[in-house]
Amino acid sequence: MTSKTLKSAQALAGAGLIAADRLPVLERVAAQYAVAITPAMAELIGAEHDPIARQFVPDAAELDLKPGESGDPIGDFAHSPVEGVVHRYPDRVLLKLNHACAVYCRFCFRRAMVGPDGLRPLSEAALDAAMAYIAQRPDIWEVIVTVGDPFILSPRRLREAMARLAQIDHVKIVRFHTRVPAVAPETVTDELVAALKPPGKTVYVALHANHARELTPAARAACARIVDAGIPMLGQTVLLAGVNDDPETLTALMRALVETRIKPYYLHHMDLAPGTSHLRTSIEQGQILMRAMRGAVSGLCQPTYILDIPGGHGKVPVGPDYLSDGAVEDPAGRLHAYPPKAS
């Protein structure tokens, strides 16, 4: 077991996570896209192609760029009025305090922006401009702190940023997006949790998890520290080939989230990030999975299957449709007239 985060192909080979003969090509991948696997995730990897390895261990297929793939697949730059802010929807913005993560997912839609060679953390002047932008727009009801992972920041930095948001009256909701409670649960301290709560604001934490094995006892304890502090948690998942693209695996993940007091929120269809086609399913496959869960699995476990339209045009649900031509289909596939015919 490693005690340090693995940050290079050489380190992965030394830990036995990749074969030595793969090192030359994976060093090329690592030179282009950041690598980091925390001890908690490295410990879970049992084989080179298991569901945890597929998420974090680089693959030669990442060098294969397909048509339509883009370094900015959902149009962040087109909707960034000032550095550190993405304003795609009228009532909410993304606030990007930093561009580093505890782990680097091989399918990340911001993989060209994060990591050691990605965008820099916000300077004080840039943070001032970002906060001023938010303060000057009363329609902004929610601020989503994300990109890279805000939970790798020190509690002091988080407290300072939250204190500034606390001064903006029209911001009512602050939402954090993070992988850290699962991938580095030991860092979710009481001090960090306390730093997440700006006075007068409602706070949510959205955990990104793609496989039930990520929710280890340590991860569940970290999430409990957040929930017990009065902060609701949501679950976000990316549909990934060879990771969670079958009904049993997806159901196990959603149940594990609910058991951890995390409400499944979104199942994302994977974005067109460069070099990720080997992990991408079709929308039709995703719809089949959602149909398999509907009726068979508790409603608490049902996320909304969504597509983030390339170019920054927003998220839309793409789950299966149960209505057609005056009929509604039940979970068993039987059709019923709707509205019902008069007896």
Give a written overview of the molecule:
The protein contains eleven helices and twelve strands. It has helices at 9-14, 23-32, 39-42, 51-56, 124-135, 155-166, 180-183, 190-195, 217-228, 247-259, 283-293; strands at 85-89, 92-95, 142-145, 173-178, 202-208, 233-238, 262-268, 304-309, 314-317, 323-324, 327-329, 335-337. Helix 5 links the parallel strand 2 (92-95) and strand 3. The mean pLDDT is 95.
The value of Rg in angstroms is 21 Å
Structural class: alpha/beta
Secondary-structure element string: HHHHEEHEHEHHEHEHEHEEEEE
Taking the sheet with the most strands, its summary is: 9 strands, mixed
Q: What is the 3D form?
A: globular
Please report the distance between the alpha carbons of the first and last residues: 69 Å
Enumerate the spans where pLDDT stays under 50 for 5 or more consecutive residues: none
Approximately how much helix is present in the residues? 25-40%
Count of helical stretches: 11
The tally of strands reads 12
Q: What does the average pLDDT come to?
A: 95
Strand content: 15-25%
Strand arrangement in the largest pleated sheet: 1-2-3-4-5-6-7-8-9
